[in-house]
Amino acid sequence: MMRDPRVRAGLPALLVSLTLATAHAAPAAGPLPPNYKPALDTAEGGLWRSFDEFEKEVRVSPLLVKDEALNAYVRKIVCDLAGPHCPSLRVYVVNDATSNALCAPNGMILVWTGLLLRAQNEAELAFVLGHEISHYIKRHSLLNFERTRRSAGFLTVLNVATAGLASIGTLIAVGALASYSRDQEREADTDGFELAVAKGYDPRQGALFWENVSAEEDANPKRAKPSPYMASHPATKERLETLNKRAAEIESQTHANVVGADSHRAAIRAYRSTWMDAELNRGEYGESIVMIAQQLKAEADSGELHYFLGEAYRRRNDDGDLGKATASYQAAIIAADVPITAYRGLGLVALKSGQKDAAREAFAKYLSLAPEANDRAMIQFYLVGVGETQP
Amino acid sequence: MIARVIGAARVIGALGISLVLISCESVSGAGFRTVQGGMSVNVGNNVTVDPQIVWANPFGAGISTTVWTIDGFGLNEVRFLMGIKPGNPLTRVSGVPQSELGSYSATMLPNDVMDLLASTLGKAEFQQIRAERLRPAQFGAVQGFRFDLDYLRKSGLQMKAMVLAAQRGETLDLIMFSAPAEYYFDRYAPTVEQIFASVQASAPAQARAS
After folding, report:
1. Which of residues 148-177 of B touch A (CB under 8 A)?
2. How far is B127 from chain A (nearest CA, A)?
3. Angle CA A274–A277–A280, to nearest 5
4. Most CB within 10 Å of its CB: which of A41, B19, B61, B145?
5. Tell me, what DSSP letter sits at residue A37?
6. What is the DSSP string of A125-192?
7. Which secondary-structure segment (H or E) carries B131?
8. Cβ proximity of B57 and B29 under 8 Å
9. What DSSP designation does B27 have?
10. Shortest Cα–Cα distance, B35 to chain A (Å)
11. CA A193, A99, A207: angle at the middle one, nearest 5?
12. Per the CB < 8 Å rule, is B129 touching A374?
């Protein structure tokens, strides 16, 4: 489970019910059997019931992406990985630019769109989901709940129970109960890896995903706290070495080589532009630039990706960024899938750089291609500013 | 008992979310006073407006931004972010270090200001932020610009906002009205249009001082 440290301070008051429901708690043992339902008068039953209540709110949240095809895509990966546990798992796609995923102890799986945007292929997504499913199968949340419940920390947690119950973000706060130990993370890494490889996924993709996310984090030295993803899943040298070593072993033994780049792109195609907008609105441009540049390695001719790379540089506007933005927009406008807004971007950068002729040309092109653009009046205003008499 | 606790948590949670953008570290000792329509009210940086109707205006130690509300923080509110100097963020965001917020620059275009506000809202963990309809507009006698926003709060509440801004001298003045998209935004938008039209801006404070 990936925790969001920004909301850890606020835990839902329903956790109060956990203390009541778990008065007769007994420690859990062993992995979950398929189709398992805990007895209600056990600690596990109380934990499940609380998450069931949460799930009722999740189901009606406006933050969910309801698109059946997208949900079916993620659900199929989950079911393939989970095998006999599939009937016990329910997938929800959360419209949130943060890179995150979790599998609650009751079988509710949340996948953030920021993760779907970052995963470059089906295999990368499968390794992350396999990791989360492994936490579920091994009952790590319950073990942590038992441990936390016995500590003074749980009382502290209850005392600050102030978060809005309707917030999906609050669910992550519940994750504070499941602050997985290093050993549990290792176990989920190993088990998730084996689940994904057993389904034929290219074993190298697991470490690649962690490396890419780690590179994003490194690109943002200003960040005071690690991202939610990295807070709970540090891409430590040990983790990467272990995954790479196991991948090398597997490669020599099997022919697991499913990457699924095309299937992943097809699944998210209708949403990628919207998710990229949301990504930029996080205001973490260094991270966005690294992430988009990584994706361009596999899609060098994507006008959409070049455009958003230009947007990230333009919006960051550090020394030299306007030049990089111009180069990115120019790469976008020669692509087959050029977004019309790339011309607007070119115009804005030219205007800021004092290149009036270039600004005039780019803005005029933008308006000719998008005569009904909702910012037409502003672009016309800019055009007057660069000497256009009849914008 | 449990239901009551949960109910209280909802209220407190909603308040916490609404406070997230308030540029104050603490609201202890805060109170509310009213501002009346039909009069000229200074909202900062030598800008005055006519409130048109009665608004509640929170004040107190730590509150440095002028906010007018109808139903409380975060609900049907007009926020005046006035005299923002280069190198400063548009506002503080609760729980986010200032170093992680984007900052204003006098060389920004209106597009840049719109993007900066969108990313500032993003830092406040609002979701599905969409800024659009950027257009020139009068800010009193000064050339300014306007744009519209919609976004979801973390709770899932759909919000709409309208912004009037102007870059005057080295500083930025930005007035933002936000309200739940359902019913409340449309109810108060005409009043806010009148407030926008009533803006009178004399020389920015910083420019006059220099």
Report:
1. 152, 154-156, 158
2. 6
3. 150
4. B145
5. -
6. HHHHHHHHHHHHHTTHHHHHHHHHHTSHHHHHHHHT--S-TT-HHHHHHHGGGG---HHHHHHHHHHH
7. strand B127-139
8. no
9. -
10. 31
11. 30
12. no
B91–chain A Cβ distance below 8 A for any pair: no
Interchain contact, B6 vs A222, CB within 8 Å: no
Instruction: Give the type of residue at A17.
Output: S
B181 in contact with A at a CB cutoff of 8 Å?
Answer: no
Q: How many CB atoms lie within 10 A of CB B200?
A: 15
**From CA B168, how far away is CA B108, in angstroms rounded?**
12
- Tokens 């958003």 correspond to A308
| B97 in reach of chain A (CB within 8 A) | yes
Instruction: Confirm if A312 and A216 have CB atoms less than 8 A apart.
Output: no
pTM higher than the cut 0.80: yes
CA-nearest residue to A164 within chain B is B13
Higher pLDDT, B11 or A309: A309
Sort strands B47-49 and B41-44 into parallel, antiparallel or unpaired: antiparallel
* Cβ-based contacts of A224 with chain B (< 8 Å): 97, 99-100
Closest by CA to A279, choosing from B118, B26, B138, is B118
Token readout for A166 is: 């309707």
Q: pLDDT tens for residues A19-46?
A: 444 444 444 568 899 999 999 888 888 8
Using CA atoms, how far apart are residues A358 and A377, in angstroms rounded to an integer? 19
- ipTM score: 0.85
B106 at the A interface (CB within 8 A)? no
Tokens of A127: 């390794």
Residue of B nearest to A60 (CA): B156
Give B137's strand partners.
B144
Q: Kindly report, residue by residue over A194-228, the tens digit of the pLDDT.
A: 999 999 999 999 989 988 988 888 887 766 666 65
Cα–Cα distance between B27 and B40 in angstroms, integer? 26
Contact A62 B14 (CB under 8 A): no
Instruction: Please state whether beta strands B77-84 and B66-69 pair in parallel, antiparallel, or not at all (unpaired).
Output: antiparallel
Q: Which of B8, B115, B135 sits opposite A315 (nearest CB)?
A: B115
The one-letter amino acid at A124:
E
Q: Token digits for A12?
A: 């839902």
